[in-house]
What does this fold into?
Amino acid sequence: MEFISNCTADAISKAAQSLKDGHLVAFPTETVYGLGADATNEKAVLRIYSVKGRPVGHPLIVHISSINKLDQWASDIPDYAIKLAREFWPGPMTLILPRTDLAKDFITGGQNNVGLRVPAQPVALALLRKFEDLGRQGVAAPSANRFGAVSPTTAEAVGEELGNFLDSKDSVIDGGACLVGIESTIIDCTGLEPVVLRPGAITEEMIELALEKKIEKIKIISGIKSPGLMNSHYAPKAKISLNSIAEAGQGFIALSKIQTPLGAIRLASPDTLEQFARYLYSALRSADQQGLAKIAIQVPEGPGLAKAIRDRLTKASTR
Ligand code: TXA
Ligand code: MG
It folds into this structure.
């Protein structure tokens, strides 16, 4: 695999061409790194599954450069979804919408809907624009980790996760550490009302403000296939215990105002919820690198981003 650390316009053009040629390109987004493939190329998309070790048939998010490309992939788009897209794209939000013929079963897991996102990350947007300039329509990209593992928030972490599984013609673009740090908010927009399937940095409060009305709170919908909603996910090797007191030699993550228990190994000391989300996954990775058996995490309380952090922590602690 090629590691691209100098994101010049030329390097990004080459990466776009490489996607068009059917190779995989891992790239930074504001949430986590994605493992990208041409979303219309079945062979390339199937390689995503084998590189990730992900069961085939799980739907993938298609990344596009702008709201103007939405019609290529989605039809019968409800007004509230247009409002959300105008308000929050580019940004950490994925909309599930009824698909057009362009979204094949190998992208949607055989469902009649497709997940779409315009990421707010300059390298990602430049790559998507270049790719579209080559006459292509979108980049399928799940988080660039092995199935069930912690999403990578740096290019080095992508290398650790997938280095052994990528080919010599695949590449990883290093665009620095991700600012948000946890995956996008996923909103099901196939019904009369929006339903949040995965909480994220676009919070329920922000959605309600944008739509000027109350929305349904997160619920697990049977019938819609969304493996990120599975109970165990985003998990490091170390065992995570929530709201227990860390013992000596164990990892510890909490807001900076909370003191480190005697002998515990502090893995992150975020001052804010934003920092908690941003540094969480690299802290989990660092626990594994240090070979820690257990991480005690003090879970942040309250609405908004805290809810998204709790969602990931609950999944990471479930086996
Ligand atoms: O922030 C993100 O969303 C990152 C970056 C790279 O964009 N991507 C990401 O992709 O987290 P992934 O595949 O790791 O998680 C996407 C989740 C999965 O649980 C998938 O099942 C669900 O979104 N999903 C994708 N398309 C869907 C669809 N059409 N219907 C229901 N769920 C869908
Ligand atoms: Mg993922």
Q: What stands out?
A: The longest strand covers residues 93-98. The mean pLDDT is 95. The chain is about 30% helix and 15% strand.
